[in-house]
Design a protein that fits this description.
Layout lengths: L1 H18 L8 H9 L15 E2 L2 H11 L1 H21 L5 E7 L8 E7 L3 H71 L5 H35 L9 E2 L14 H11 L1 H22 L6 E9 L5 E9 L8 H66 L5 H36 L24 H12 L7 H4 L4 H5 L4 H14 L1 H10 L2 H4 L11
Helix pairs in contact: 2-5, 3-5, 4-5, 5-6, 5-8, 5-10, 7-9, 8-9, 9-10, 9-11, 11-15
Length: 534
């Protein structure tokens, strides 16, 4: 009993020491510093739901605050913190009680034993270091998850803005095609257009409407994806996006510098380095105590039937005769080798990602430059020259509408290339774990397409000229698509006048009136102007 009184204070101290261990808490300042290298600011408080125009920073903050991926990452970090507590705590002692009754009579014999395994005590410090390394690795994984989510949201935001701008340009192209089809119907009703040309105009208008529906569907899907990343699935009606994409920033030249930056700053690499520290400590631990099994010192007390009291102590331990923990050493070394291989694989993957996204960024930038600086200006000149030919009655107004549609289609390609550029830039920034040189988006201006829609005074003049074309008897056949035979009979001058009268029956001014007043909103897109081109 005396020994029990001596041992109880020791056990109490150890028990209290084990209870005093608390889980590590996440320091938001450290987390904010980890993600700040990519220009990400953590929201300080709950974000209100978006309304009005949704800026890029607000979309990222919404995603960080609401996306369930972040809640899962925080929960995983809490689980790892529990592992740190478990590694810090002592094992519980075991208490044994015994009662023995003699066969011949007499008093019972009572026994009390107290044993405590101390192997965990010897390895406690190393296990704490391993658990702490694991917690630090998980914390960095959380930070990397925030950066990855921000990058996904940024790319989705640019994709949605590009989809909106492409839809607007496609709407202009569709209106031009519809205008051509309606004008064709007027010509056809007047008997001055063959079935083939009428069908071709209707086909072009229908195809343009199908393209517009596809563009609207792409826009809807892009908005839904952005809303999903922001943790607001399906909520796409309370906020709007900018109408135009920013122009590209200065080109990036130093590729190797980006690779070096990525290998130094990538959070997933740093997380794996912390995990390797724990694995290395694990190998050292299992080698250090390979001969030691479970060691249990204990205290025993007995009271004989005649009242005699016995007390004493003992120790039990495993003899490493058949098993020297070879399997434990092999497992620890294999885990370390696997971790080192995973790190090397990640280094190669990071290097590959930087090179790949660098090439994609350069490709989309070059493609946009060709479209903006070469193709669109050439389209503008072609439209202007064809406008002049229509004014002089060398070409038909339907040719002008067709080339305007082709010009608007190239504007769509340019918007798509610009959207791909910004998505590639966001992917490269995530790959290098830092902001890219060149300035802030928007500092170089915006790719304006709103100027594509304006009043085409030159087209009005072209239609007046086309109507006056009927005054020339020599071109009566051109005025009357339905009577080429009269025009072809040069031997009979009167027949030529019949051709002229056929053109008047078509009433070129009436056709112009249909173009000018029948759909004022649609005819705006038939102008040769190249508004919005930079």
């Amino acid at each position: 009993m005396r020994a029990i009184r001596l041992l109880l204070p020791v056990v109490s101290v150890l028990f209290l020491a084990g209870c005093a261990v608390t889980a590590p808490e996440l320091d938001r300042s450290d987390l904010a510093e980890d993600v700040s290298v990519q220009g990400i600011d953590l929201p300080e408080s709950e974000m209100p739901r978006p309304s009005g125009e949704l800026a890029l920073d607000e979309a990222i903050h919404q995603a960080i605050w609401r996306n369930p991926r972040m809640q899962q990452a925080y929960a995983k970090l809490d689980l790892t913190a529990a592992d740190v507590v478990e590694a810090s705590q002592f094992s519980n002692p075991s208490l044994s009680l015994s009662v023995m009754r003699p066969e011949g009579g007499g008093g019972n014999e009572y026994g009390v034993g107290l044993a405590w395994g101390i192997s965990g005590l010897l390895m406690r410090s190393s296990r704490q270091e391993m658990a702490q390394s694991h917690w630090e690795s998980t914390r960095l994984q959380l930070a990397e998850g925030i950066v990855a989510l921000a990058s996904d949201t940024e790319r989705a935001w640019y994709d949605a803005v590009a989809a909106r701008q492409r839809t607007e340009v496609q709407r202009l192209e569709t209106r031009a095609a519809d205008l051509g089809a309606r004008l064709g119907e007027r010509f056809y009703d007047a008997g001055n257009m063959p079935d083939l040309q009428r069908a071709q105009l209707r086909i072009r208008a229908a195809e343009a409407r199908l393209k517009l529906e596809d563009a609207r569907q792409r826009e809807r899907e892009a908005r839904l994806r952005l809303a999903h990343l922001m943790g607001l699935p399906g909520e796409v009606h309370d906020w709007e996006l900018p109408k135009e994409l920013p122009l590209p920033l200065d080109a990036i030249e130093e590729r190797q510098a980006l690779v070096d930056q990525a290998l130094e700053q990538r959070l997933d690499l740093r997380a794996l380095d912390h995990a390797l520290e724990g694995l290395t400590e694990g190998v050292a631990l299992v080698r250090r105590y390979r001969w030691m099994g479970d060691i249990e010192p204990g205290l025993e007390f007995e009271r004989e039937g005649d009242g005699t009291r016995l007390w004493g102590g003992g120790i039990s331990f495993t003899l490493p005769i058949f098993n020297q923990n070879q399997s434990g050493i092999a497992r620890a070394e294999a885990r370390l080798a696997d971790g080192e291989a995973r790190r090397e694989s990640l280094v190669q993957a990071v290097t590959h990602d930087v090179h790949q996204h660098f090439e994609r960024l350069a490709h989309h930038r070059a493609r946009f430059d060709v479209l903006q600086d070469e193709l669109l200006p050439a389209r503008e000149v072609a439209t202007e020259r064809l406008q002049e030919r229509v004014n002089f009655m060398f070409d038909d107004v339907f040719d002008l509408l067709a080339i305007k549609q082709e010009e608007l289609a190239d504007w769509q390609k340019t918007v798509a290339a610009l959207g791909d550029y910004w998505q590639a830039r966001a992917a490269l920034a995530h790959a290098v774990a830092g902001e890219l040189p060149g300035g802030e988006p928007g500092s170089a201006g915006y790719f304006e397409t709103s100027g594509l829609e304006h009043d085409p005074a030159a087209m009005d003049h072209a239609h007046h000229g086309h109507g006056d074309h009927g005054d020339h008897g020599d071109h009566g056949g051109h005025g009357d698509h339905g009577d080429h035979g009269d025009h072809g009979d040069h031997g009979d001058h009167g027949e030529g006048h019949e051709g002229h009268e056929g053109h008047e029956g078509h009433d070129g001014h009436e056709g112009h009136s249909g173009m000018d007043h029948g759909d004022h909103e649609t005819r705006e897109h038939s102008d040769h102007g190249h508004g919005g081109h930079h």
